[in-house]
Amino acid sequence: MREHADDELVDFVIVGSGAGGATLAAKLSEAGFSVVVFDAGPFWRPLEEFASDELEQHKLYWTDERIVAGADPIVMGANNSGRGVGGSTVHFAMISLRLRPDIFRSRSKLGYGVDWPVSWDEIEPYYTEAERALKVSGPVSYPWPSKHGPYPYRPHEINGSGQLLGRAAEKLGIKWCATPLATVSAPRGKSPPCVYRGFCVVGCSTNAKQSALIVWIPRALKAGAEVRDMAMVTRVEIGQDGLCTGVTYRREGRERFQRARNVVVAGYSVETPRLLLNSACPQFPDGLANSTGLVGKYLTIHSSPGIWATFEDEVRMWKGPPNMAVSEHWNYSDGGKDFFGGYSFMSQGPLPITWAQTVAGTGGMWGARLRDEMVKYNHMAGLGPVGETESQLTNGVELADEVDRYGLRIPKITFSYSDNDKALQRHAIAYLSGMLEVAGGRDVWTNVDTSHLMGTCRMGFDAETSVVDKDGRSWDIPNLWVCDGSLFPTSGGVNPSLTIQALACRIGDRIATLSKRGELSGRRREAVS
Amino acid sequence: MKRPYPTYDVLARWESPSFNDATRETLTERLERVPERRFFTEDEWSRLEAVVARLIPQPDRARPIPITPWIDQKLVEERGEGYRFDDLPPQAQAWRRGLAGIEAEAQKRLSKSFVDLGADDQDLILRCVELGEIDGDAWGDMSAQRFFSELLVRTVATLYYAHPVAWNEIGFGGPAGPRGYVRLGVGERDPWEAPQESVQ
What we know:
The complex is a heterodimer of chains A (529) and B (200).
Chain A: E1 10-15, H1 21-30, E2 35-38, H2 46-49, E3 67-69, H3 106-110, H4 120-134, H5 160-172, E4 177-178, H6 216-222, E5 226-228, E6 231-238, E7 244-251, E8 254-265, H7 268-278, E9 297-303, E10 306-310, E11 325-327, H8 329-332, E12 343-348, H9 352-360, H10 368-374, E13 380-388, E14 396-403, E15 409-414, H11 419-438, E16 442-447, E17 450-456, E18 480-482, H12 497-516
Parallel strand pairs in A: 1-2, 1-8, 2-5, 3-15, 8-18
Antiparallel strand pairs in A: 4-11, 6-7, 7-8, 9-13, 9-17, 10-13, 10-16, 11-12, 12-13, 14-15
Chain B: H1 21-32, H2 42-55, H3 68-76, E1 84-85, H4 91-110, H5 119-131, H6 136-139, H7 144-160, H8 164-170
Helix pairs in contact in B: 4-5, 4-7, 5-7
């Protein structure tokens, strides 16, 4: 690995090495820029260091303290967080879906939310690029209009839980298919085909999973990027000219400073706004890129209540990737809804601890009752929506007064569902409960849950209503960029990781273009669209 | 209670391709290196043991799956979950205050220490805590309901179902790497999985 000294002026420092940061690191280094990508966590070697064990693999999560508040506080620290090179893609469920094309013109075409500054035509080639890079395994013909033509690798055989989704969908006459997954169905380089261990969401120990750690990081290293692990960036520093000069970080107990021409913040929807706010300085007393006050605002998530039923046959839903069958029926059918927005839904397959937390979280479920309920594990199957939530100004990330071990103020995350969000979930629960019954399930019950984070540094058309432009570039500080899920103006009804990677591919190309035009090093820009 | 998989033992595959070295190291630690008391006082430890015995009763086992020691270790090592509800204090305080609150509730309602109560009375006290029907003084501004559901029950359930003996109980395949599964569909089973449920 090429290494840079702290006082060497590198072209780009990227803070965070997940779906946004690692992808951009590969693109920028391949375009010839010098790049140092930081991650607060370790550079894992999955073949030697990953156990088939949920508890042990908690080491993949971001478990620093965060305060959660609001009417519907978000459970953090597991499925929506990551610490270590590759970020949360190291333990993501590999679902690789494109947003519904209309989402990019949500306000104009669907009548709710806001339009994205990036259009469908602009992002579509980058979805293709990301799918090819990940060798997504999926159907030859995807049933919805976001994807034409076959996926790079053939679809995976579907597990029991997915078969039940398919059985019900056939009976109800709605479309479904094998979920496009970023785990290979045939050999690819050093990755063997997926062997259906079922431990995907606590880390793949065979490297079949096409995480950022497996796909983008090796590409970035090959092209000359440096990955600096176990390095917590604590501040983005600003010079007298109002431009970024680099980042201050802690590594091996020492505070250090890396000089850089550009800084990209890619820490996801909590750590990205937290770093920008914690980097407040005399020129920018309210935090960086925050002249609008919108840093940390408009946090969205996906509602993901679980809908569960008991089946006569053994399903053993824990085998294979957890979400092997998908339907986007309610992400495209807008008729008969008493709410705006949509949801895709998938079959589910939680591991025992996650399952125990789900069962025990339903209230009054402890004592002998809990053990009796858990014994049904092999007969259970479930469905879950990825439910769009509204972008609300009142949901977001701010700094609490408490400080962490670095002396940095910790984030406080506030979230409450809107009436529309609740109506969407009622619809999903009713429909998916019916599906499980059609599939032969009995004793249907549900639990409350969420997944994913989006928003908090939204991109937009102008400096008044957004934090960054469509290239992820700060309106206030032209050598400061954001490249992760916090860019999303709205959540859409599918898992965000493929869209984050597509945006990062696009931003990488745009930066190369701007550089060629001599527009990378600029003065503060006029705040106009 | 039902025991559908009476002969099944996940650990019988210890030397098989279902286990890798990282998994064997992890499970050796869990099975053989149960931590000593370091965080809780002796009284807190005994009280938590009594609470855990009601949340996950194990009358069928001469050697119950240990849970309290792992909670103690987590607290002494200050390993958090990555989030804290705004109506709970930091986790070390929350556990101390919650255990004190349970004791105060037992004293107030039944004039006995929680550990000296019979099982039914202990359940009664725990149900009061679960429903938030508690004496405000001992709990302060901390939500008893939140403590019960989000810390106590969630943590206890997590640690119980992290143990191979609990995997046997529910018929979970256990470690699966480098070898995973071949037969994935409804009603399908690989030879190294738990046998089909015995008819009862």
